[in-house]
Amino acid sequence: MIRTASSAAWLLRIAPLAAAAVLAGCGSKAPSHDDQCASIGDKLRSTKPPSAQPIVDKLLPAIVRSCKEDAWPSEVMDCFAKAPASTPELEACDRLLPKAIQDAITARQQPVK
User: How many whole angstroms separate alpha carbon 92 and alpha carbon 94?
Assistant: First the structure.
């Protein structure tokens, strides 16, 4: 490629933009699907009082497993990610789950009750 004054000027114009794009990507790796599911589990656990932790410890793995294995819709994943750790908001996210997934969670929880 022959370098000309115009190609040098073009390079000078885009260099800051290219550097900004590279830097914006540094350290901003999106969490994996499994990490998102674990985070949902942590958020759900945080809403329960200490006295409920024994039952939460038995039931929560079924929810996290469902999240990992049952292809939760992105709408549900986004809802849980954005919802504050409070029961009403998280229950609203739960209601977005399709009935088939809700049934799968219930089936996984049955043996541990």
Answer: 5
Please give the structure tokens belonging to residue 12: 């000078």
Q: Which of 71, 112, 79 is nearest to 96 (CA)?
A: 79
DSSP-assigned letter for residue 111: G
d(CA 113, CA 108): 10
Residue of 74, 64, 58 lying closest to 110 (CA atoms): 58
Q: Locate 68 and state its tokens.
A: 């990992």
Q: pLDDT by residue (tens digit) across 57-111?
A: 999 999 999 999 999 999 999 999 999 998 899 999 999 999 999 999 999 998 7
Amino acid (1-letter code) at residue 27? G
Structure tokens that stand for 98 in this block: 């399709």
9-17 long-range Cβ contacts below 8 angstroms, 24+ apart = none
